[in-house]
Amino acid sequence: MATTTKPSTSATSLEAHSGLLTWLAHDAPEYVERKKRAKFVPPSISIKDVHAAVPRHLFEKSTTKSLFYVFRHVALSVLFYVFATRIDGIVRSASAAYHLSPLARSALIWTLWAMYWFWQSVAFTGMWTLGHECGHDALSQYSWVNTVLGMALHTWVLTPYFAWRVTHRTHHKGTNNLARDETYHPLTRQDLKLPEASRATPIDYKQVIEETPLYTLFKMVVRQFLGFQLYLIHNRKGNPKYPPWTSHYKPSSQLFKPQDRNLIIISDVAIGCMLAFLATWSYYTSFKNVWNLYFVPWLWAHNWIVTFTYLQHSDPTVPYYREKSWTFARGALATVDRPVFGWIGRFFWHGIAHDHVAHHFFVNIPFYNLPKVTEAIKPVLGEHYCYDSTPTLYALWRSFTQCTFIEPEGDVVFFKNQRGEAVREYADDQTSTQHHGEKIAIGDVHGDAQNGLE
């Protein structure tokens, strides 16, 4: 009789771990398909065709519905806070009831605080995304409602509302335009002092930009937790056309127009009041208390904000344009929809990563209508609609390690990795027959704010 050999426990465990790693770290089919289209032909899609595909009722804003979402979100954040204030009592009760050892008691404390820090960071991030909606006047047809809500929500997470609104709107008007976009500006070959592509050798890339995984991780941690505030303070990773120490907190900064000055001052005063509140709270309780209840989730919220804002436009398969080849539609299509953290991103972050392509075409449409907008415009966008279901943390690592630099010349460029390789290249023998018409459409777009096209 034939005998069968049972797989060993260690072999089964190894297979399980391998399967988990494959699930957590793999390129999604959509990403693989874009890589296969290695020769990139810039899209020539009419904005008017995209606009015509969206049913008119999706443009409507409901102040009542928007207020419901805001109040529900704030209420959940308050519930998380109440839970945190009861952690010590929960641990005491559990210790008395189950005679916990000091080690078990410590483990329980850390577990409960970790739960609070995660969920409150998720809630803080959602407040920021709702403030982002207000910055586009997308929650209410009444401008003052958007302003009041946006100021309150963004100030709570230490974001200067009016200052950030100005530069974010500029980002929308020049998305992935290397001359005009405001955020996540890529380094060029010249910035890294690399030899010209025709002369560069593998040794050149290895000596100049190759990093150890540990150092890459260190840089990621700094960027993830502090990057957004450093961008606000001194334009880190912002457009290099501005002078050093350009700041969102400086009313005279070149980021703003003279007529923005008073609004920037109001933002600064609001941030000052929030800092004063945190200092007073620390004085009457303790800094440790405020650190645990506010600053830890606030830092983690910045990590989530940087994650989805970075991944929206920084991807090896997504192009950057120089002025000659850029159009509004091409910039909007240089955007990737991602189901970041699944239902958490949809419920708590209001789909800011799920429907970002639609948001770039229609900034004034409220977030709760954008899923239907996405479905409506997909047939018009065709293969130029970018969606990527790659697991979020792996996608973040992939972009951080592969989106290293771009070439200093060329109308359409893609990121290159630390070996000087790009996964796609511009099919420069192709021309866009509608490019001139697209430029005309842009003028109409910028003047059609009531329809959400900016």
UniProtKB/TrEMBL annotation:
Residues 112-387 form the Fatty acid desaturase domain. One of its GO terms (biological process) is lipid metabolic process. It holds the Pfam family FA_desaturase. It comes from the Eukaryota. GO terms for molecular function: oxidoreductase activity. The chain crosses the membrane at residues 66-84, 96-119, 139-164, 263-284. CDD domains: Delta12-FADS-like. Keywords: Membrane, Transmembrane, Transmembrane helix. This is Fatty acid desaturase domain-containing protein. It comes from Trametes coccinea (strain BRFM310). The lineage of its organism: Eukaryota, Fungi, Dikarya, Basidiomycota, Agaricomycotina.
